[in-house]
Amino acid sequence: MRPISILFAALVTVAAFCVTETQGAEKGPSAAPLSEETRACIECHNSLNPGLVQDWLASRHAKTTGEEALKKPEAERRVSAKEIPGALRTVAVGCYECHGLNQGVHKDNFLHAGYRINVVVSPKDCGTCHTTEADQYGEGKKANALANLDENRVFRALVDAVGSVKHLKGKRLVSGKPSASTLNETCYGCHGSKITVKGFVTRATDAGDMQFPDLANWPNQGVGRNNPDGSSGSCTSCHPRHRFAISVARQPYTCGQCHIDPDVPAWNVYKESKHGNIFFSSSRAYNLDNVPWAAGRDFVAPTCASCHNSLVSNPDGSIVAERSHNFGARPWVRIFGLIYSHPQPKSGKTYLIKNSNGLQLPVTFTGKPASTFLIDRDEQAKRQNQMEKICQSCHSGAFIKGHFTDFDVSVREADEMVKTTTLLLSRAWNMKLADSANPFDEPIEQMWLRQWLFYANAVRFGAAMMGHGQATFREGWWDLTANLAELSERTKVGE
Question: Fewest CB atoms within 10 Å of the CB: 193, 292, 345, 438?
């Protein structure tokens, strides 16, 4: 056994016990016993990375054991595994309990201070206790976000256009290939990168020279990153380490890391919506930690999580919506236009979609859906009914019906504007005003891109969450109309 002073062990236990809710800690029982390995981790990292250790001490993981978690009533339980491995049952979920799992498949595993440690904690590791959540996440678009970029040649063309470095070659403007670092700070910052082990390097630390894995594309917390154990995804995209608090994941700021304008303006719309107004005015009164989450008692106006994935109940405990970590499981329509709105995909692996024109897009340029890959009308109706039940926790039937009627009309009319623009782009290609080899790299093509990726999305998201400013003058109807008029003028050349 690695020696550790009795005094230090006592101090760690007391510190964990004394963390209170006023310091931002989640509610939970008193400090759980620590494993020998985790004590050894804390012994060094408490001086090297004190913020990290204190953040973990404030977590629910630091205060409970696997056995205690399994004893919770089913509706209140935060673990979904039927059984928890013996080593995790009687101790707190500490450093080693997460960084020491599944060592045989972790290519980033290395010998560190006498213990075998993995650098990257993956959804497969979290799935040891949170089995259902990890499985649901793996089925969705988020866990497949990297593949959905890299395996789709249409999106690859867009990524290359976004990250390309322009420079003059004589009198001609040419594009250079984007670097991995540039891509990691653009599209892949949210979608994720592939983390690989290039080898091992020796680094000087406060504890002396130590050898570490040399990881490519690290750090990266993108939702679809590929991990060294072969899994995809990052739980810490929404549950930041080392506290992993549900109270953070439930707040709109977390979704606002990636879902921002101009392409996915959900955060911007929410801020100016009535729901956002109420949240920002009264969120101090919210209980962001309760499971299940009761509408009207724990929260008033919903956050993103209320509608899209949280376990929502009524104050009497009756369940309104089951928890899901597949964020595409509740919506019936995908308003993030590719190129048009369309029914939600059946699978999170959207790169498998192929429309009747042979492109990896859910609709053709003229708006015909690739129905084989999309949910049918019955499933759409079922999902919309489920969403309306969430709305019904606070709103009357007439209010809900009126909202969704207006939403449907706005989405349909935005799609019509996109279709007109798409036909004009086709006209531009026929007139040789642009080269269709990459549909995103020339000015007239970028006007078309802005029409559906920026302006129509602003209308759709604004209509979905009643953020009317975004839907009108800020990248909404005004820009949708003006952009269409300009593109129409440009394609009159030669008539």
Answer: 438
